[in-house]
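User: I'm writing a tutorial on reading structure tokens. Could you give me a worked example: one chain, its sequence, then its tokens, then a sentence or two explaining what the tokens reveal?
Assistant: Sure. Here is the example chain.
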Amino acid sequence: MQYDSQLKNKKPADGSWKRNVVLIAKNANVWLVQLRKKYQQEITHLDQIPEEELERLADWGINALWLIGVWERSPASRKIKELYGKQDMAASAYSIKEYKISQSLGGDEAADQLQTVCSRHGIRLCADIVPNHTGIDSNWLLNHPDWYISVPQSPIPDFHFNSPDLSPDPAISLKLEEGYYNQTGAAEVFLHEDHRSGVKSYIYHGNDGTSMPWNDTAQLNYLNAEVREHMIETILAILKRFPLIRFDAAMTLSKKQFQRLWYPLPNSRERCIPTREKSTMPAEKFDRAMPREFWREVIERVEAENPEALLMAEAFWYMENFFIQKLGMHRVYNIAFMQSLRDEDNSTYQHILQTTLETDPGLLEKYVNFLSNPDERPALDQFGKDEKYFAACTMLATLPGVPMFNHGQIEGFSERYGMDFLVPFMNEREDDQLIQQHKKFIFPLLRKRAYFSNAGTFHLFEVLDEKNKPLSDVYVYFNQFQEHRSLVVVNSSSQGQMVHFHHSCPQLIDKKKKRFSLLELLPESSAEAMLICEEIRTRDKIIFSRKALEKDGFSFSLKPYQHLVFELTWNEQPVDNASSSH
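And here are its predicted structure tokens:
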């Protein structure tokens, strides 16, 4: 409890680089193949990535590179796929043998060389950790089978384990249930047999309870203090090379969810992992075994030993704010951003923004926003590549939080790269026209990321239609960085809109909810001043008189999916440009 209060009152170091991260995801193996084709040269290791390509990312405004699939993968995962008959698939990137850079990618030396080159261009590296499970033949399991959730007898008598042995150690057998191979079943456990002692145990596969168990993984037991400590030490070691870490399925390791899934409360009606119904545990006993939230332990140790690190959690099940506010996680996935803009469910996202501003505006900086991620359909499939996409992408680039771009999003690739892909299966070419559109509309915003990243100076405006009724389809928001003041106006709908706005939505400031007019957010000016609204990307100007703004507020006629990003400045001199005035 003492630590909890300390964490609550402590403001962790959050340098400007963290606030201004722009992240791009790359499936490492697939990317190397694509680069090899593009540059017509040998590119198989991380240190062979052409510096020209890294320079291009930096020029786009990217300053963080998430490399997916860099760890040594489970040979058993690959063998399982071969036994399935999937000869063209690799071991899963999330079935990990050990947390060492894969020798097929050049090992640690290649990663260190890449880090050196990236640092010259202001790019930091990011890697995954898969904390809830390992590969079924991982070094951890071979040496410490007691670190995993297991039972001494098969939880279902009809499970049969007369399948090929997947173990690299002749002293141990590792066998899947037969149903995996003939696709008649998906057992929750696999057989672990130690031939030296003759002891059999049935270890659970990794599982989040939403679909089938991941049959090439083994579930770690976080009630074991050794497991928690070893994972924390692993995280600290990885941070020496990768200052950003993304935690896969982090929500499964919160105390509430871990107990629900694996050690359900007696008489609980909540859904647990199948066959764990009898593994009940009273809350008091569970709390003795896991007295603190694991993620609190992680944050405490990281901030003490590596305060410059940035930790990002994939957390769903409506747990995003819990991870930030209660656990202290630095950044958390915000899937609502993608879903709401894709479905044009703008009322929902406006409500999310307004509620956040009324309760804890700082949360906006903690979200990782995206239009696609490696687990989702490509942005091209969800948003297309026309104005709807660029309207959403403009918001991605100008809202507080971490803008994340998926592999192939900017290039217009349509393939979704699975975690067992080593090569792309589609022969796709970069869409030069789409890249040019990014250069025109998106990259200038990314390069000015500091203009938009501060939640403390962010204000969302209440937008009204011609009949003075609230209109959720149009987003209008203001931000400030030093002397730069920006206004973003985005029509997130297929309908043209005539809109006006005058006051911001209520926002919690110094424990009070406050509203502002846009004029109150601007520097003082004379009554005769003209407000110059210069579009950052096109340099088009719209001019408003102060008197008109005081009387009527701002008004815009917007085309479908139109997106405008203005820098605002006062002009105290008379402006003879009536055609551009509003």
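What the tokens reveal: The mean pLDDT is 94. The two ends are 58 Å apart (CA to CA).
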